[in-house]
């Protein structure tokens, strides 16, 4: 029985899946980059990321402190959260001396891009802490040399020397 489909369709389908798999991180990076541009043009006048408070709160670590759906609503429709008496939005309003966050009229895609940028910034900050990976071989070799010198010193120190 011939169905009219060649066996080559599996190769084509797997090729498309591989391309989608490989382009996924690249597209996420593009979203974060456009999010950076949107943040700098629309948000940076009132918010910083790790630079302290301006008019609005500092956004360092905000994606780990807040739920993503709440962030989307806060960025897209901040006045609605205040109208609904959201406790976090009310607290932020008080901290900003009752200066409400304006509605920026951003599309859902732009809001998602800003959140992706904020997440990417947090990941870079988390990666930046600690010992850079390029120094690990040097650190391990140094520790090995110190242990070797210590063992040699202990062995040499046990020799009985006749001092006359």
- Please report the first level of CATH classification, the CATH class of the largest domain: Mainly Alpha
CATH A-level architecture of the largest domain: Orthogonal Bundle
Number of strands: 0
Strand content: under 5%
**Total helical elements:** 7
> If you average the pLDDT, what whole number results?
79
Overall body shape: elongated
The tally of domains stands at 2
CATH superfamily of the largest domain: Cytochrome c-like domain
| Major beta sheet summary | none
Backbone CA Rg: 28 Å
Describe what this molecule looks like in 3D:
- The chain has 164 residues and is mainly alpha-helical.
- It has two domains: 15-128, Orthogonal Bundle (Cytochrome Bc1 Complex, Chain D, domain 2), CATH 1.10.760; 132-159.
- It is 65% helix and 0% strand.
- It has seven helices and no strands.
- It has helices at residues 8-43, 62-65, 68-76, 78-83, 87-95, 108-128, 136-157.
- Helix 1 crosses helix 6 (108-128) and helix 3 packs across helix 6.
- The longest helix has 36 residues, at 8-43.
- It is elongated.
- Residues 25-30 have low confidence and may be disordered.
Short overview:
The protein contains seven helices and no strands.
Please give the structural blueprint.
Blueprint: H1 8-43, H2 62-65, H3 68-76, H4 78-83, H5 87-95, H6 108-128, H7 136-157
Helix pairs in contact: 1-6, 3-6
